[in-house]
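Friendly challenge for the regulars: who can give me the C-alpha cells for this chain first? No prize, just bragging rights.
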Amino acid sequence: MSSKTLAVGAVAGALATHTARRLRSASLGSRSELDNNTSPRKSSSAATPTFAPMAKNVGILAVEVYTPSTFVSQTKLEEHSGVSAGRYTIGLGQDGLGVCGDCEDVNSLSLTVVHSLLEKYDIDPSEVGRLEVGTETLVDKSKSTKTILMDLFPNNTDIEGATIINACYGGTAALLNAFTWVESDGWDGRYAIVVAADIAAYARGPARPTCGAGAVAVLIGRDAPLAFSDPRERTTHAANVWDFFKPDHTVEYPTVDGALSQVCYYRALEDCYNRFADKLDKISETTTKGSVKEVAEHFDAESADYFVFHSPYNKLVQKSYARLFLLDARRRHEKGISFHREEEKKETKEGVEDSDEILAAWLTKPIEETYSDKALEATLKKLSSSSFKQRLTDSNAASKAIGNTYTASVFFGLASLIDRAGGRGELTPGKKAVVFSYGSGALATMYRLHVREPVQTRFSIDRMAKALSLTERLTSREEVHPSELDHALETRARMHRAGAPYSPVYPTTGRLFPGTYYLNGIDLKWTRTYSRVPLDAKMEPHETSLAPPIVLRLAKRDEVSCPVTGKLEVLSSAQEGHSDLHTEAKKRVACVITGISAGLPRTDGKVFESDNLDRLVRGDQCIAPISGSIKMAMLDKNIVQVKKLPGGKIQRVPFKTEKD
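First reply, four minutes later:
Bragging rights claimed.
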C-alpha cells in the first residue's frame, strides 16, 4: 500500500485514538455536558430524549465553512475580460470568486469542512447518528460523497443519510431531513450533520464570472440557539422546468437558459412566499385569540429581522427581495387589507403616499408581465433599498466574496449572518430569520429560524461566530491574477477528459490552507485517495504564479490548438500582463483548427485526393477543357455572366451558345 493511500487511514486512526480517550474520560465523569440531557452520547440515557413534545427546539447548533485559499477580484476580471467597468461588480453585484483547480473536488471539500467541524467543536465521531450531503458536483454516478466522509467516523458505522442531488437544493433537502430525524420519536439522542458542497464551473462566456467553490457543514440537534421551532413555518415549491441541467457527463459545465432560470427563481419565490405569509398570518390569528392583542399581525417583507436567500449572484437577490414588496401589495389588494406601517409611507411631490399607492399600476397586472418590467424594477428598488440593507447585507457578504457555491450558497448566507450580526452581538434571542432556498429543475423551500437562548451551554450564537471568524478568513485568502480562473477551469476540464490514472497538478499543496484535504490522484481502477495538509504547515509565498509550469505550457499550447471550451486567442504574441487587454479580448474567436486538406479541379469528380498536395508542389496542370455535354447542361440552367464595366456599371450577359 502506498504512502498516499495511507493518508486518510492515518487520519481515521488518529480520530479513533482521540475517541477512545474521550469515551474513557467521559466514563470517569470528567465532562459536565454528560449531566445535561441536551448533549447526545451513545449511552442508554442519551438514547431516550427527555424533551417535552412542544419544546424540542430542533435547529442549528454549529456551523463550519470552507472555501479555497485563492480568489479572483471581479474588478480585475472585468479589465482582464475586456468588458465595461461595473459589468460584474454592479451588473452581478459580486466582489470576488473562489478559484479551485484539479487538486480539490467535492469529496475533498466535504472532508475538509466536516473534519474542521469535528475539531472546532470537540465532537466525538460516536456522537453523530446522521450524515447527509447535498451536492450537484458529482465525481461518480454511483458512489456517494457521504461514503467518502465515513473515514472521519472510525468505529461508527451506524450513521444514517446519503447524498442528495437536485441542483442547488440538495443541501436544503438534507437539512429538512435532519430536522425531521431529530424532531421524531425515533431520534436516538445523537447529532445530525448536514454537508453542502459544490464547485460552480462554467464555460467561457457571460456565466463564467458566476463561478465559485465552497462547502458548509451544519450540526443539527435539540435545544438549538438557532431553532426551527415551528415545523409549520415552511412552504415548498416543486415544478418541472429545464432552466439549468447537466446532461453531458464528460464536462462539469451546465446547460443554462439564463433568462428562464431567473423567471423560474421568481416563480418559486412568489409561490413559496405567498403561501408562507398566509401560513404565518393564520398562526398569528390563532395565537392572538384570547390574548391582549386585538388585531393579528400580517406577515410581510419587513416582518422578519433578517432574510437569507440562495445567491447565484447578489444582484438577483436584490431584485428578488424587492419583489416581495410587490407581492405584499398584491396580497393586501386581493384580501382588502389596509397598509399598516406608517413609517413606510413615502414623501412625494403630491404629498404622503404609501407603497400600495405607489405600486397601484401593477397590483392587477398579470404577474408574468412584471418579470421584465424595468419601470417596476426601478420602483421596487427604491421602496426596498433601506430594508434590503438592514435585512440582507450581513447574509449576502460571504457570497459576494466567494461567488456561487450551488448547494452551499444559502448556508454561506446563514454563516455570514452568524459571523457578522452574531459577531456584533445583534443576533439576540427573539430575532427571526427567513430563509429561501432554490434549486433549478425546480425545487424551492422557504422556512423560518428563531434565535433563542438554549439551556445547554455547549453551543451558542457567540461560539458559532467566534469559531467561524468568516470575515477574517476571507480576508486571509490570496488574490490571484484573473487568468488563473481560466487556468484552473481548463485544468479541471482536462482531468474530466483524461481518464485513469490521473495525478492532479493545480495548484501545489503549498498554496492550500492548513487542514485542507486534497486529491492525491486517481488510480487505474478509478479509486480516489485523499490527504490532508498538516494544521501546522506553512503556506508557500504568494508572489509566484498559482498555476505550475505544466499548466502554463498547456495553456500556451491551447492558444494555437484545440481548446477545451472552443474559445482561443489567434495570432497573439503579447506576454501576459504586457498587452492591451481590450485588444487581446477582441482577438478571441470561436475557431478550432483540426487539420488541413487541399481540393483540386478534376474531371473524374474526385476533388479531395491524398496526393493533391504533392501535385501542387510538382506544379501539375489540373485545369482541363470541359466536355460538350457539360457545356450543354450548363446552358440548360440559363447561366448569366455578370460584368463590371470601367464606369462602375454592371452588365449582365446571358450564355446562349457553347461559344459563349
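The radius of gyration is 31 Å. Residues 44 and 131 are 21 Å apart (CA to CA). Your move, everyone else.
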